[in-house]
Amino acid sequence: MLKFKGGIFVFLHLGENVVVPIKDVIGIFDLQNTMYSSDTSQFLRLAEEDGFVQRISKEKPKSFVIAEVNKKSKIYLSPISSSTLTKRTDIDYNT
Questions:
Q1: Positive or negative, the Cα torsion across 73, 55, 80, 39?
Q2: Each residue of 46-56: pLDDT tens digit?
Q3: Residue 2 forms part of a structural domain
Q4: How many Å apart are CA 18 and CA 55, to the nearest integer?
Q5: For a Cys-Cys bond, which of 31, 58, 63, 70 suits 82, CB 3.0-4.6 Å?
Q6: Rounded Cα–Cα distance for residues 29 and 55 (Å)
Q7: Which stretch of DSSP H or E encloses residue 32?
């Protein structure tokens, strides 16, 4: 976490050197389970053709994360499982 005047920036590490602000994350999805749907496969294929997909590493992706970056949707293919990424977003706001 990085502190700034008046609060805290909280980032989600997606793998390699890629981080996104948690507030910008729209959804975290398990790649293997969602690929059974032809709609998801088509969505990811079209997004890749349009340049919205960023592969984070050469490792086989386990999840994809949709985030809003500079007012545009971006899809990150992450080598980290969706369950691990989801656990990383679990913030205790009572502290």
A1: positive
A2: 999 999 999 99
A3: no
A4: 10
A5: 63
A6: 15
A7: helix 31-34
